[in-house]
Fold each of these.
Amino acid sequence: MDLNYLYYRQQIETSMAAASRTAAARKVHSELANEYEKRIGKAAAHKTDRPPKANSTMAVAMTAREVEDGQS
């Protein structure tokens, strides 16, 4: 799966959690964001020895090839 997509979805879910009106919605969106983070970690571990960058907004702007090569 494309790392850019995973970073994008993680950021969307984080934003949705922050904008949620109810605790239940915040919890669900936070859990989804955490699941995307886990997938990012697994996908990045297969592509590079370095862990994924914490700044997902910057990572979304990176191409999949840059992430794969470990460039920043």
Amino acid sequence: MRVDDLPIRRVPVIAAHLSMAAARKVALLKQISLLLVERDNQIVGTIDDSALTADNDPTEVAAAMRPLTTSLRPATPVTEARELFIRARASILPVVVGGFILGAVTRSDVERARS
């Protein structure tokens, strides 16, 4: 089984200059624990559930984001995806192909697929 066999969720994009309060509202509205961060028309990072639950409302998204370093590919086997989740300490990761972000997959979906 591969990542493209799992449900791939759409991921909202938020501007780097906005506040974490705004990011939290977007994540709540979209019911997702990962946001992509955009600066100058490029995706530069992510805001995940750990940043979204922190008490840092006035902080700019750019200061709280993680640079986009870990992602999955559609052809990634779920066993390898699980290892990437563990190393990244993430509950959700983006799925990327050819420079395009297709969406995101949750660790719980990967764990269910393995069982």
